[in-house]
Amino acid sequence: MENKTQEEASTIKVSSLTCIDLANPNFQQSAVSLKQACLDCGFFYVTNHGISEELKDEAFEQSKKFFALPLEEKMKVLRNEKHRGYSPVLDQILDPENQVDGDYKESFFIGIEVVLPGWRATMEKYHQEALRVCKAIARLLALALDLDTNYFDKPEMLGNPIAVMRLLRYEGMSDPLKGIFGCGAHSDYGMLTLLATDSVTGLQICKDKDVKPRKWEYVPSIKGAYIVNLGDLLERWSNGIFKSTLHRVLGNGQDRYSIPFFIEPSHDCLVECLPTCQSENNLPKYPAIKCSTFLTQRYQQSHVNLSIYKQP
Questions:
Q1: Is residue 215 part of a domain?
Q2: Residue 9 lies in a domain
Q3: Number of domains in the chain
Q4: CA distance 247 to 249
Q5: Which domain holds residue 154?
Q6: Less packed terminus of the chain by CB within 10 Å, N or C?
Q7: What is the pLDDT of residue 95?
Q8: In a domain, 181, yes or no
Q9: Does any domain span residue 218?
Q10: Can the peptide bond before residue 287 be classed as cis, meaning omega within 30 degrees of 0?
């Protein structure tokens, strides 16, 4: 575990993030604002997204009902080798250098093909709406990267995407100096994440992951808005022009619920430097890699082996 004096940088500051209005008819103006937000820190809000508060509230209600079940019931839908299903507390450790245990959270991964029967109406509707919003953001990202608006709509990219929603419940009190976190510091693996949170404070971002000591800022929840952040695959695609941003969650003793929606290109998509992000003086920094290979590596690095849950 690294010297904890590095983790004593102020976490009092509340971050001020750009807000992108998805209903703005001036698409170019929105793309310019989005590009600046991506260059600044890779986190921003979106409003006028078209997802009703009623649908979001119902998704949170269904999430709370699931996590209120006895552990033995939740373990009946334990995650599989594709990481769809239930992950118990401490199942994932995202920042092993700074964590003494795994994350103090439990989660349920829902893919397009995996929905518990009792949730189908709500979760399928929410999944469809979140996917629609992510594709709209991806079109703005394409413009921000000097690509055609529909560049990412190709079948091998977001025409046939990996799109997963995750229900999360954080518990307990975090203590960074003791290596105890609701969720350890990490960047997301995929292209982008659409995040819905409740009103309980906890999410923090580090705008510059290369500067030590790290400086953490809280990201407040804004009613009617979603938080969006960029992932590692987009950093690779953009040749490092757009950065995936470190973030973590500190628990304050209250239960905290969130629903992140992750979108990645298709399993077989070869993620390599975009044509507008390279030149003779700016060669590709990352080797090409198949999306499924990259994601599998990252998931395996951060989750405990499923064999520990098997009965002797």
A1: no
A2: no
A3: 1
A4: 7
A5: 16-167+189-196+223-244+252-304
A6: C
A7: 80
A8: no
A9: no
A10: no
Backbone angles phi, psi at 221, to 5 degrees: -80, 135
Burial class (CB in 10 A: 0-12, 13-18, 19+), 40: middle
Q: Side chain identity at 91, as an amino acid letter?
A: D
Q: Please provide the DSSP assignment of the chain as one string.
A: ---GGGGGS---PBP---EEETT-S-HHHHHHHHHHHHHHTSEEEEE--S--HHHHHHHHHHHHHHHTS-HHHHGGGB--TT--EEE-TTSB-S-TTT-SS--SEEEEEE-TT---GGGHHHHHHHHHHHHHHHHHHHHHHHHHTTS-TTGGGSIIIIIS-EEEEEEEEE-SB-BGGGTB-SEEEE--SSSEEEEEE-S---EEEES-TTSSS---EE----TT-EEEEE-HHHHHHTTTSSPP-EEEE--BSS-EEEEEEEEE--TT-EE---GGG-BTTB---S--EEHHHHHHHHHHHHB--GGGGS--
How far apart, in whole angstroms, are the C-alpha atoms of residue 12 and residue 262?
A: 28
Three-point CA angle 178, 95, 59, nearest 5°: 100
C-beta of residue 304 within 8 angstroms of C-beta of residue 91: yes
pLDDT of residue 305: 62
108 and 85 in contact (C-beta within 8 Å)? yes
Q: Rounded distance, CA 141 to CA 152, Å?
A: 9
What CATH code is carried by the domain that includes residue 119? Answer: 2.60.120.330
Q: How far apart are CA 78 and CA 57, in angstroms?
A: 25
| C-alpha angle 303-255-203 in degrees, rounded to nearest 5 | 65
Give per-10-residue mean pLDDT for the chain (312 aa): 45 79 96 96 96 96 91 87 82 80 87 60 93 98 98 94 94 90 93 96 91 90 96 96 95 95 96 96 95 87 64 53
pLDDT of residue 102: 81
198 residue type, one letter: D
